[in-house]
Amino acid sequence: MSKLYGWTGGILDVDLSEGRISVLDTMEYALKYIGGKGLMHRLAWERLPKGTAPFGPENCLMFAAGPLTGTPAPTSGRMEVGGISPQSIPEMYSHSGVGGWFGAELKYAGFDGVLIRGIAPAPCYLSITDGSAEIMDAKYLWGLGSYATRHELKRIHGKNTRSLVIGPAGENKSRIAAMLTDSGNAAGQGGFGGVAGSKNLKAVCVNGSGSISIARPDELLARRSEIGRRPSDNPLVRGANLEYFGYFTGPVPWQKFNLSCTHACDRACMPAFMDLPRASRGGFHCSDFACIGQMSAGWQQSDVFGEVPGVEWPLWQHNLERGLEVVELMNDLGLNQYEILGGMVPWIVMSAHEGLLSEKDFGFAVDPDNPHWWVKLLNSIAYREGFGDLLAEGTTRAINALGKDKYGQTLYTGKRRFKGIDMPTPVSLQQAWGYAAHYSGRGINASVPFPDWLLRALTWMTQSRDSNNDTHHRSRAEYIKAFRADPYRGDNGPRMAIWDEHRSEIKCSLTLCDWAFPIAYYTSAESKLFAAVTGVDTSEEELDFTGERLKNLQRAVLIRNNDRSREVEVGEILPFFRQPDGTAGAVIDENEFAVLVDSYYQQRGWDKSTGWPARAKYEELGLTDVANELQILGKLPEMIQQ
Amino acid sequence: MSKISRREFIKDAGIAFGGLLAGAGAAAMYSSEYIAAEVPKAGKRLVQLDASQSACIGCGTCELVCAVFHEGAGGPNLRRIWLERNEDGLTCRMLACQQCDYPACYYACPLQGKALCIDKETGTRYINPDECDPGCRECIKACPLEPPRINYDPERLIALMCDMCAGRPAGPACIEFCPSGCLKLEVVGA
User: Fold this and answer.
1) What is the ipTM for the molecules in this complex?
2) I need a labelling partner for A567 at 20 to 30 A (CA). Which of A254, A576, A582, B150 fits?
3) Considering the domain A10-207, what is its CATH architecture?
4) pTM value?
5) In CATH, what class is A441-632?
6) pLDDT tens for residues A374-397?
7) Taking a C-beta distance cutoff of 8 angstroms, is the pair B44, B165 a contact?
């Protein structure tokens, strides 16, 4: 085999039922599917057929790094986790990104990814060291919190050990259980902690001393220089203004005692500039902040963001310290912070205000201002005690079980004010596919105004989870201006959404930070970094084409496994957007939205009536085998209706 | 940039390095009387800007660019600078060769002047990887700092030590690429 640049060449294939470990050749996948999310899409197509249950032995828990992971490409330390997600409704193939150091260490140990199937007969963990892996007894780890587990793994395997672990919530197969790295980053959404728990897998730990070869080192460093910031003065006195969705933090000094959330990060992301009391928090650092924590803990801090819709929920306002403690506890129990803080607790609190949920349901009063309430609530979820057993299924499933009409759509009439106006709000903030609203004009982070949230509706519609985690809506000012001038009927909206979707696939396959990329003023950054690291000369257009391949492949998995169609997707997304938005009370125009969806499908080359790609599209993308299988299933339109 | 005296450096280093330098013998290595006359005085060395304030964000960019500049690859055994991460305390300490006035590594090297060399003009102590005797490790054993600031590549069996990117026009890559700007060159003994 010729020398590999970027990739290491192996994917661990672990069968816990049989206790067998083998290695797949990365290069059979790499050039077409890159790595990360793209690699997982292909493995999902091959190994997760229709009907695969999330907690069954046939489900594969996948970890995938990319060719840039562990190199000096900026923000390249990330990794993707995936499989059939128990949190998604219906249960379907989904994914979650995770920062920290695990992905890079996995590559230094000689692997681009790990695929774990089967169910171990007894609690176990997987230990990976320099080209080999071993299934280890986890009798003494089972039952521990995530912090204790990580520390124990470092004690056993050395202080440089990197790990992905679950807490009690994962062991108890919660659908909202996370997998956490030893640096506190989490693959939060999707419920993959529960998948690990169902496999009796407490942790995966890795020690790597190998290296990743770079095809063109000088070029890589030059690219990094072009992309990265170049601080020239003393970081201890340097101040900065940070613009964030139109809001300014004001000049604050560079944060001290602030760890970056992933390898090779060069970004001035918002948490670095928020003067948060972090030094007092062992183990609570930027990682928790950069992805989820700063939102959840800082949500209520109107002095941080000013008057942003979505920050004025009557939770634990202006008590960040308490918020940090709550986040710590969720991390230790291995619970999905976003789900709980973004969807569940607002739902519980508003339901209690409206008299829908009470002390009788929980066995204790709903009182988020009381720290003990949080401790009781979170423990009851993680250990599935009492009402917590239902909540461990996730907010949407809990609402569906109680009765969606009564517990989901009822309008909250309590104190929720924005710019002096009382805003009517649905009790439930669930958006689609089982996930809480996120930057979609309503609920938490409701600051996105009309018509910008229309693009969130489009991208969330075709996803299997909350799409705003890695499909960030970035575009050039002139495109945004044109879209806003004619939101439903112009071509620009779908064009921007499609571009962002392709860039989402690319950055999560390479891997690069889902916040930092794409860079609106330097859109060729990804392809240039990819070429410098791998030596595979690739233009921006060629990499976008790969992004299109990955998006269509993921769509094929959802069409085959979950009978996805236009009718299903539009029906799923509309109820949320019928609610008045948080900034102006605007609602979606359903007839006009149909025109927008027409345009989106047309630009994608998908059939307008079914939303399915036709054979020509799959063949153009090099996915002929996918088209053949879909044809047998009757899910391949020969001609597309345009 | 604040200047610290040699005595203060020894004191700080003694605290920072867990008291290793508190012993009289170790301190003597650093005392000016004991500087060997036959080797050029050390010039500059790489230091972390105010480590106690931890402006370092622990991203590891310094480690990665170091390995990529010198070896064309990234990995823990290929770097000449690395971080000791205290993730619970949110601080990181940069570890790299400190260009001792008394180069114990140089005297310990069986191929003194060929493998472990001292640049006559700049005084920089550095390792010539092409001449390093595979598996020898004498320089690492001799390093008075804890942990030793010389890395070891178990694949090629050679020692790797910071040379401040000698020959790189822009100077040390780690300084150029550190996103926190918390690395700098300091005149030894200044």
Assistant:
1) 0.88
2) A582
3) 4-Layer Sandwich (3.60)
4) 0.90
5) mainly alpha
6) 899 999 999 999 999 999 999 999
7) no
